[in-house]
Every structure is written in C-alpha cells, then in structure tokens.
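Revision sheet: structure tokens.
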Amino acid sequence: MNYDLIVIGSGPAGYVAAIRAGQTGLKTLVIDKKYIGGMCLNWGCIPTKSILESAKLFKRMKTGAAEFGIEGFKPEELQFNWLQAVKRSTGIVQKLSRGIEYLWKKNGVEFLSAEAKLLSPNEVEANKLIYTAKNILIATGSKPAKLSELPKAIELEEFLSLAELPEKPILYGRGAIIVEYAQFFAMLGKTPTIIASDLPLVPKLDAYLEAFIIKKLKKDKVKVIPASGIMVKGDSIYFEDKQIEHDAIINCSLREAVLPASEIDLELAEGYLATDEFYRTNIASIFAMGDVNGKSYLAHAASAQGLSVINFIQGSQEADESVYPINIYSDPEMAQIGFTEAELKTKGIEYQSREFSLNANGKALAEGTAEGFIRLLFETKYHQVLGVQIVAANATDLIAEAGILLELEGTVYDLAKTVHAHPTIAEVFMDVASI
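Predicted:
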C-alpha cells in the first residue's frame, strides 16, 4: 500500500501534520499503537487542565464564596468528588478525540491502530503488512523518565486511574507539571511534597518567574526538597535524617523520547532523534517532530513543527523560527514568551524591564483575581519588545497578544497606542507600556 506520507504517532505533532497534509492533497496514513491525540490529549495537557479547573473551583467556593456574597451553605462541608472530576475530564477527551477523527476523515487521512516499525527510508511495517511512502514523519512523543530508585512511583499515565487521591503525595521531578500537580493537591487541602530532581524547578523559565513559583509554593505550604539530599531505605524516604511522610510517589520527571521500532540507523542526540532546521533526520525522507526530537516539550511547539514539515515537503524552504510561549497552568497561571533576562545578558543586548501589577487592574479586582503582574523586556535603542512574562488567572490566554507583538517585531510604543477595551485584564499590556 502506497502513500505520499506516513505519520507515526497521533499527538499534537502527528495529528496536526496529518490534517495539513490531507488539506494539501497528500495521501496520508497515521499509525498509532495506543491513543488518538497522544499523551497531550489522553493523560497530559487536556485531562490535567480539566482536573485543575475542578480543584480551582473547589478552592474558590470553599475560601472565597462568602466574600462575593454567596451564602446558604457551609464551606467546611464541601467535598471534592475525585471520580466525578475524572469523569468530566474523560468526556472532554472523548469529544476532542472524535473531533480529530472527523478532521482526518474530512481531509482524506487514513488511520491505523497498530505499532509501527521502520524497515527502510520509505517502508513501515504495521500489523504484519508493509506500507510505503515518499516521506515518513516520526511523532512518537515522550514520557517521564522511569525512577529506578523509586520503583513504586505512580506514572502520570496511571494517575487518572486512581480510585482515590493520596493525602500526602511526594511529587518527584521538575518542570511545569510538578508545579501544577503540587498546587492541585494543595487546593484540595492535601499535603504534597516536591522532591526536585534539579533546579531551577521549571527549566527555561526566567529567574523572575522561578522566584515567584518558589515563593508561591511556600505560601501554599508545599515543601520543596532537593533530590540530592534525600536517602531511600526500602519504602521510606529521608531528608536530613527525618522521614518524609507520604502515602504515594508520583513521577513528574522530565521526559525522554519514545523511539519507534526501527531496522534502520537513525542518528540520536542525547537520546532524542537528531534533526536539522527543517526537522529532517539523518535520512532525508524521514522527519522527526515534537517531543521526540528534543527541541521542545510543548504541545503547541510540536504542532507548529508538524505544520513546518508539511510546508517543507510541499516546497517551502523557510526554516521554522517561531517563538513559542511557555505556559504553566498554576494558580495563578504563568506564561512567558521571547527572551529571558539571562538570555539577553548572554547575547550582550542592552535592555530595560517594566512591570505592572494586576492590583491596579479594575477587572482583576472585580473578579478577585488580582494576584499577578505583567513584565516587559525590551531593547534600549528602538524599544522593541523582546520578552514578556505574565502571572495572572488567565495568563496562558493573555500571552497570545505578546506572541503577535514579538512576531511583528513590535515596540513598547506600538503596545502603548493600541487601545484595549475597559475593563479587561488585557489592559495591563497598554498600562505596562505606558509607564
């Protein structure tokens, strides 16, 4: 069976690339051995954000309802129904999964549920059949690295299958997900402990936001312990000769590539598939996009890479140089795009920073979501904005405006003269630029 394109993996890189390939007239086959939508849709991005929203609503009802004039119930009697929260997230996942299947069908993309094995630069074996294609896209993603020293740790893929939530979980690892899980448990009144495999806690984040995270976790009474200081004895874990009370360990380690079975030699770089600026591997007809190439762990970056690959196959020679936002779905949310201060200093770029607090924003005060700020980093000659950092209840949405600004090489002056509706949280862009 012959195709123009075979995509191995159906996560944000794979399914988006397949849809675009179908739209451009390529006969396309997607092969995935497990989930439509990959880790992101099935046990990562979407379901975790769903349960986080449940926890945020629970916390707000329990601690803030009276301030808003809501009475008639006793906050201390509120209970969190974990299984119902999971059921809601499952419904969302199923709806989105059907949406992907619909878009594939609409654009003539075929799907095969099977494990794929690379046989040659143009051949893939699946279900004991051989499929050929002019080009092959590997989008097999990644998963948290196993903890050999903590073999009983719960994997994130298993978390939503728990019958009940632990009361005193240890979260081992680092990254945005460990912050989100820690706050999830804290919002429900549990006692989580973070064992940080390394610092900074969230790689690639500006030190200013990292400092906010550490301060916020301390406020939420979440202990952060360095992994270098722990000692494991059987099922017990000690730090500074004191046993850490826990009833579960959850693996939030940074991820490692999931490599497809292969009879051909694909070049690796630090365990990931090595690629050039067009996401080509060492074999010209085989591309690798998303987490599997190690360039980014972000779902939206994976999708952007997938689109870039299809553009390249269809004749575009423009390398993908997009600027991707980093989002953390914490409480409040955090987002960042562009350069960090450390990166600007390394590049020798003279810059200034400006910050504006949400405590001066009318809509944030009205909503009771005034914890946070916006911060601009801009070069000193033309005042071109080079980096934006936001802490706000909806920071992960607000950052999109900054993305457009950076893409158009906009300045502080451009931002200051752009009229924003009042009252809105987005006014902070205009306000910080007008200081």
